[in-house]
Specification:
InterPro entries: GH. GO terms for molecular function: hydrolase activity. This is Glycoside hydrolase superfamily. The chain is an alpha/beta fold. 31% of the residues lie in helices and 20% in strands. The chain contains 6 helices and 9 strands. An 8-stranded parallel β-barrel has the order 1-2-4-5-6-7-8-9. Helix 5 (204-214) links the parallel strand 7 and strand 8 (223-227).
Length: 264
């Protein structure tokens, strides 16, 4: 049973997805990306700007999708992703800027204020923040301090109700596991990004073993399996997802694909 499905997107392609409540209980739209850098790629110390298509991802588009999903008993949650992931295919952000801070306490204040203002201005009824920095140019201690402070502020202020992290298991070991274990109650989901492994896994058996490794850090009830058909054959992608969902009882999966029209 696929309970949760998350689509990472910078446009309104979610409006073209067909799904059934027989397989789905919650659809998550994760908007890519809000970045804390300027148009020249220079760090802004926590002042975030939107990087998705503001002309397509509108309050009206989100409302239509919520109504469509709601009529079938499927809940919709909207996340804003903060971070970077190469941004291939996204014409609105053409740089892959690392997490970098100039002053960590000022970063928390700036990030809290700028994301609060951004969420209010886009008026999309945002539910949560997803943290997906693939490249990090900071110490683990600074990264953990800043992200933890930001998410706690946004939740305490009622700006968001849910939060997630999306680590790349092979690349981010020193950052995300200690972040999660320090404040597990702050994060409702952990979306592991399998396509970005240092050594891509093509064997579904090996993928299950890797998922088992992750369950030693994160609880299965929170652990989504993240894939990208842009980096793998569709058959391999769906085979991987089905294996994890059926054999490991995972709560759901995500897809990093900006034009996903297949039925669910």
């Amino acid at each position: 049973m696929l309970y949760i499905f998350r689509q990472y997107t910078f446009d309104n392609s979610f409006e073209h997805v067909d799904f059934s409540n027989k397989f789905l209980k919650e659809y998550q739209i994760a908007l890519t990306f809000a970045t804390d850098s300027d148009e020249f790629g220079q760090p802004t110390n926590g002042i975030f700007r939107p990087g998705w298509d503001l002309a397509k991802v509108t309050p009206e588009a989100i409302k239509r999708f919520r109504e469509k999903a709601g009529s079938m008993g499927v809940e919709v949650k909207v996340f804003i992703c903060i971070g970077n992931r190469g941004n291939r295919g996204n014409p609105f952000i053409n740089r892959d800027n690392p997490f970098k801070i100039l002053d960590r306490d000022a970063w928390i204040v700036n990030a809290t204020d700028s994301l609060t203002r951004l969420i209010q201005e886009v008026n999309l009824q945002v539910d949560g923040i997803d943290v997906q920095y693939e490249t990090i140019d900071a110490s683990a201690d600074d990264f953990i301090h800043c992200v933890r402070g930001l998410i706690k502020n946004l939740q305490d202020n009622g700006v968001i109700t849910v939060a997630s992290i999306s680590p790349t298991f092979s690349l981010n070991k020193e950052f995300y596991p200690p972040l999660y274990t320090s404040v597990p109650f702050l994060f409702d989901y952990v979306d592991c990004q399998f396509p970005k492994q240092l050594h891509p896994i093509e064997d579904p058996t090996a993928l299950l073993q890797r998922y088992d490794e992750l369950t030693q850090i994160y609880p299965i009830r929170k652990l989504l399996a993240g894939f990208s058909p842009e980096n793998a054959e569709p058959f391999v992608f769906f085979l991987r997802v089905m294996d994890i969902l059926h054999k490991k009882n995972a709560p759901g999966a995500s897809i990093y694909y900006n034009h996903f029209y297949a039925p669910l």
